[in-house]
């Protein structure tokens, strides 16, 4: 199968299935065309995933298809953007039909689930690498940035933390138990919190998605906003499965492990009170923004030394 047949066979059907009127022209021409409604901003981001760095060697292609789009979509969620479309630059060592079939299946289900239409891409030969550009839109000026946190704001996170990172220990496990399975699902099938991000538009003062660990990613908000924060380790939401498996260590996973793709936001107490009940129910208050700089971690009110954490590709 030649390059163009491959693209037509595996990827054009995904584009057709996800067709949306905002993508005026999908794959097949030199560029795709996206129509932006008047009064909206285009919000876009690109993410690269390299085999052996962002996913294990010989990783299941169907899971990779889901995961690559979920992690890219998560950046749109953090900005409060409505998802629209994406492009995929795929570098493959060879055109293995089984691999492509599995990958396309995972990608198609993620595209449908996240409401992102495949608008185009590029297919080349080389070490397995995926780059996905995702496009979303927001009403003009309403994207949630990292720089809006103010002293006195609450710090909140969605869902539970630490599970996906803790699952790395079980990736090679032949016969994982129910708790291990629950964590593995968090790693293999991350959810981008797109609907939550949209619901937080106009309420959250800042937001980031947790890809590298809470401490690292909250740190980006603090740096961009020029503020400090304190968080209470005992308040971090942790799943029952992680508690059973990791015991006391669960809180360290929740603090430092990456790959959860939950949202960390800041929000003023007034905005918190006016948030719809169901949205508040999806968030846990874990701390408070302060003036100054740095992140203080308390444990039942006692201050605690901060373990350096979070994933940084260039840290030596
Ligand atoms: P060009 O050479 O003009 O960059 P290509 O020959 O690389 O175009 O691609 C032909 C068409 O197929 C383009 O419209 C491109 O968007 C689309 N395409 C290529 N690879 C993919 C892919 N993996 N998924 C979806 N569309 C793709
Ligand atoms: Mg061209």
UniProtKB/TrEMBL annotation:
CDD domains: ThiL. Residues 150-298 form the PurM-like C-terminal domain. It catalyses: thiamine phosphate + ATP = thiamine diphosphate + ADP. Mg(2+) 4 binds at residues 30, 45, 75. InterPro entries: PurM-like_C_dom, PurM-like_C_sf, PurM-like_N, PurM-like_N_sf, ThiL-like. Mg(2+) 3 binds at residues 30, 75, 209. Pathway: Cofactor biosynthesis; thiamine diphosphate biosynthesis; thiamine diphosphate from thiamine phosphate: step 1/1. HAMAP family: TMP_kinase. NCBIfam families: thiL. Belongs to the thiamine-monophosphate kinase family. This is Thiamine-monophosphate kinase. It comes from Marinobacter orientalis.
């Amino acid at each position: 199968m030649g390059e163009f047949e491959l693209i037509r066979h595996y990827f054009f059907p995904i584009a057709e299935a996800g067709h949306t009127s905002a993508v005026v022209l999908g794959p097949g021409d030199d560029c795709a065309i996206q129509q932006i409604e008047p009064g909206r901003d285009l919000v876009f981001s690109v993410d690269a995933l390299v085999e052996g760095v962002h996913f294990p060697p010989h990783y299941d292609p169907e899971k990779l298809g889901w995961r690559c789009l979920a992690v890219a979509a998560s950046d749109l969620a953090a900005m409060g953007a409505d998802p629209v479309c994406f492009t995929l630059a795929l570098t493959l060592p060879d055109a293995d039909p089984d691999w492509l079939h599995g990958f396309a299946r995972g990608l198609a289900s993620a595209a449908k689930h996240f409401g992102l239409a495949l608008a185009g891409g590029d297919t080349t030969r080389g070490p397995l690498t995926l780059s996905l550009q995702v496009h979303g839109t927001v009403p003009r000026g309403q994207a949630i940035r990292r720089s809006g946190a103010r002293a006195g704001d609450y710090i909140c996170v969605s869902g539970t933390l630490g599970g996906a990172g803790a699952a790395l220990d079980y990736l090679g496990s032949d016969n994982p138990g129910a708790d291990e399975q629950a964590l593995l699902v968090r790693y293999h099938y991350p959810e981008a919190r797109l609907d939550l991000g949209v619901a937080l538009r106009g309420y959250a003062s800042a937001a980031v998605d947790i890809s590298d660990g809470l401490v690292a990613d909250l740190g980006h908000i603090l740096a961009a906003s020029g503020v400090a924060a304190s968080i209470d380790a005992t308040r971090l939401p942790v799943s029952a499965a992680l508690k059973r498996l990791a015991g006391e260590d669960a809180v360290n996973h929740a603090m430092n492990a990456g790959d959860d793709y939950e949202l960390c936001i800041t929000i003023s107490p007034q905005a918190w009170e006016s948030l719809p009940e169901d949205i508040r129910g999806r968030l846990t208050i874990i701390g408070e923004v302060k003036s100054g700089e740095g992140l203080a971690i308390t444990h039942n009110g006692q201050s605690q030394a901060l373990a350096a954490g979070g994933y940084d590709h260039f840290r030596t």
